[in-house]
Predict the structure.
Amino acid sequence: MTTMDDADQEDRRRILEARAWLRDGYTTADRVAQLMVGIRKHRGERAAEELRQEMRRQWATREQWLSDRSAVDGGEQGGHGDTQA
């Protein structure tokens, strides 16, 4: 049985977290800025910037993953990592 390495797991976690925040309505500059304040406070500047970049990537492909969630997300629902804003 093959397991994902730590980097792959972190990438997957970040993708799912970004999608969850987008689904929860963090889609405007003001809302994302609010979210980033909380992320910076709890996880630091680097984590906030990485999440912001991933949210941008996921926003660009949202039609694909929103229309076929079970295939893309493996049926997983929501989840925001370890920080709520």
Residues 38 and 84 are 7 Å apart (CA to CA). The two ends are 37 Å apart (CA to CA). The mean pLDDT is 85. Residues 12-73 form one domain.
